[in-house]
Every structure is written in structure tokens, then in C-alpha cells.
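Open question from group meeting: does this chain pack into something compact, or does most of it stay loose? Before anyone orders reagents, we agreed to write out a predicted structure and look at it together. Recording both the input and the output here so the notebook holds the full record.
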Amino acid sequence: MKNISFLLLLYIVSITPLTAQTETTPLPTQTKSYFNLTQLSFLIAGEDQYSPVKSTMAPSLVNINGFRMNDNVSLGIGAGVTALSYMIFPVFADLRITFTTGNISPVLALKGGYSFASNKKKLFNEYYGDYKNTGGGMFHPEVGVKVVMTENLEFLMTVGYWYQHVKSEIKYEYNYGTHNRTSDLNRLSFSIGFQF
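C-alpha cells returned:
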């Protein structure tokens, strides 16, 4: 009986430092404060032969400035650039919900706004002629994880769905007519970002 009691006591003493090491105190973060988030995304989709957008993976860089309402909710506005076969420039509102106040927390983000497209004319193909893009609405919901690194620095990693509506004007070379067309781009996004 003494041996069992001694082994049990030894076991409890040996795991106490391990449990103490795994328990972390949440780092303090600023509530009700200004924040800046810089986010890099990779937008992935299959190639669409009927769309002027031929790239299957497009990088996107956005910067968001906003205000933390409390520990869980923040609102902001953002702008950025996305490199498709042409450049688009999104301007959007951003809502973020953080579900816990620990150092590692799930996060939900919703972006919605309008993207302006570069107006540079490019060759659509040898038969149609030139086209000009005029942009359209965008929507980008994301889910992921936020990691508090220091009191003023957080790392975010998300996956999401990216939607972009694009209007194009095509000028035909042979009959001198024009045709307006729209494209709905649907892509999977993988993003990383740093929030200050």
C-alpha cells in the first residue's frame, strides 16, 4: 500500500509542472481601440474558357482600418488590389467577430463592397478585338483563427469564399459593334494577415 501511495504521489508531483506549462494566461489586448490589418490572400479557381479571366490563382492584398467595439466585434473599411488577368481595386466594409478572448480564437470575417477595374484595353482574342472592364460588386466571407502574439500584434489565418462581379465592354473589330457582358467570379481564398 505504501508503494502505491508513493507512486501516486510521485505521479501527481511529476505532472504538476506539465499542467502548469500548458495553462496560458491570455495576453491583454486593447478593447475599444483603433486597429490596422494587412492581409494577403490567394484566390484559387479552375480556369473558365469563356471568361476573360484566365488565371487560376490570383494574389490579393488588402489593408483594413477599423475600430474594435469590444473584445469580440470590430468594424472597419478597407481597400486593396487583386491581380487577375487585369487589376481590380476593391473598396469595402469589414465586420469581424472573435468568438473567445483567449490567445487563440476562432474568427469570422465578412467583407462587402465594390471593385473598380483597370480601364486598360486588352486583346480579348484575335476575332473579337478589345475589351474594357468596369468592375462590380464583391463579397468575401471568411472563417479562421486569430493568434494573439503580443499586446499589440495578432496573426490571422483564414479560408473563405470570394465573389466578384465584373462588367466588360467588348469592341468587335470586324463589325465595329460593341457588346456588354458580365462575369461572376467565384473563388476559394486562403489568407494570412497581421493586425496591429
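Observations to bring back to the group:
The first helix runs from residue 2 to 22.
The chain has one domain: 2-195.
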